[in-house]
Amino acid sequence: MLGKLASFFKEPPVKETIQDAEQVKEMYSHWRWRIFYACFIGYTVFYLCKKNIAVALPGLSAEYGYSNTELGLLGSSLYLTYGIGKFVNGVIADGSDVRKFLPTALILTAIANICFALSAVFITPGHVSFFGLPSTTILLWLFVFFWGASGWFQSAGFPAVAKSLTYWYSNSERGTKWSLWSCSHQVGTFLSVLVSGFLVAQWGWKMAFLVPGILAILVAIWLFNRLRDRPQSLGLPDIESYNNEPSAKNTENAEEDNRSYVEIFKQNILYNKTIWLLAIAYIFVYIIRFGAEDWMIKYLHEAKSNSLELAAMKLSWLPLIGIAGTICAGVISDKIFKGHRAPVNLIYLAGVVICIILLKFNTISMLDFVLIGLLGAFTYGPQMMIGGLCAVESSSKKVASAATGFTGTFGYIGAVLSSTGTGFMVDKFGWNGA
Residue ranges of the Major facilitator superfamily (MFS) profile domain (predicted)? Predict the structure, then answer.
């Protein structure tokens, strides 16, 4: 069974390189655009099935009486499985066919979302259930299970996309293209907040999981038609040769051809000090990112007395303005700093600190929109570069997915701390203490 599964997902073989330069140019032009928009749309839909939880939290709390600490378990379950799965699935993705790997992950994510909503249909609150536990407790752990399962399947999405972008775009253009693709995070979050907010307001929290789940299945089928694996699987030369852009790692890559994946993995990830530094930095980036994404609505609703609709509108500015911040981070690092990413990261992280302080003491409601938007701009830039672009460029193309998975695992340690930690601190010390 496992053998058949491995065979199904196995990376397609390299085809004989096409010699006709004009045909190569036409194919590269066609497939690079097609791969890019498919990855963008696919990952956007992953986020529709991920960020819906933020809008559903008030409804879950109101219907079942869950505390902030209990609600924090939901976020932590996804972040824990997502963090571990991002590394494991990253290793698997390096040797898998992106065309099959990505759509399958999206379908399984959709099923987990649908099961999350339907579990509340079969267990009604107010009754004693198994082992004398209240039904609400049993239901909470069902929610935790399905949301954790969703996190595992979602974790396969980013490594697959990272592999595609690494193989289809060269170093001189990768910062810009990666930042443009990374806007799918913000577009997905923005759409999820608005769409899920509308669905919850009209039909209750369950629809925030059912509708995105059904949509994700349809998009996954479309992705299988759109995607392909590496350029070499279509008979195209590698991207560096096509762009006449010798890689700084050419000699290293030639040596890697004679080494096993495990040896390449050890040298470029486990024994790579830069990767470890990026991974540690990513913990703190994700504490800020998910603290804002998951708890901002509840914070605005409870601490600043905003309605849920107003709070959702304010939160939507986080990813919306974050798009501009993400694009600027990639373009500035490519054009101004000539591919050096560290200066941009430092500038952006200073902006994060300033925005958090100003948001804490701001009393003008309309100014919240601006501050939350700027917080998104300064947060999503480092989020895109540190765990994705910088990780790939600090390792090897042959372990690109694993490199992003490794840093991503550390990032989601921060996400777990942010989710459960914030809920606990709010319960103990209030929003000011948190």
Answer: 35-434
Q: With beta carbons less than 8 A apart as the criterion, state whether 171 and 393 touch.
A: yes
Structural domain harbouring 54: 26-242+264-433
Q: What is the pLDDT of residues 196-241, one digit of tens each?
A: 888 988 898 899 999 999 999 999 999 999 999 889 988 998 888 8
Q: To 5 degrees, how large is the angle CA 254–CA 255–CA 260?
A: 115
What is the CA angle 394-46-3, rounded to 5? 75
- In angstroms, the CA 372 to CA 183 distance is 17
Q: Which residue has the tokens 């004679």?
A: 258
Domain assignment present for residue 15? The answer is: no
Quick one: which of 102, 248, 70, 113 has its CA closest to 184? 102
Give the span between the Cα atoms of 416 and 73, in whole angstroms: 9
Report the C-alpha gap between 163 and 127 in whole angstroms: 49
pTM value is: 0.78
Within 10 A of 250 (CB to CB), how many other CB atoms are there?
Answer: 10
Q: At what angle do helices 342-361 and 273-303 cross, to 10 degrees?
A: 20
Phi first, then psi, for residue 341 (nearest 5°) are -95, -25
Residue 271 — φ and ψ, nearest 5°?
Answer: -100, 15
> What's the CA gap between 406 and 392, in Å, rounded?
11
Q: Is 69 helix (H, G, I), strand (E, B) or coil?
A: helix
Inside any domain, residue 386? yes
Question: Each residue of 376-419: pLDDT tens digit?
Answer: 999 988 888 887 778 877 888 788 778 888 888 898 888 778 87
Distance CA 385, CA 320 (A): 18
Structural domain total, the chain: 1
Contact (CB, 8 A) for 82 and 109: no
Assign residue 184 the CATH number of its domain.
Answer: 1.20.1250.20
pLDDT, tens digit (0-9, with 9 covering 90-100), for 141-175: 899 999 999 999 999 998 899 889 888 888 777 77
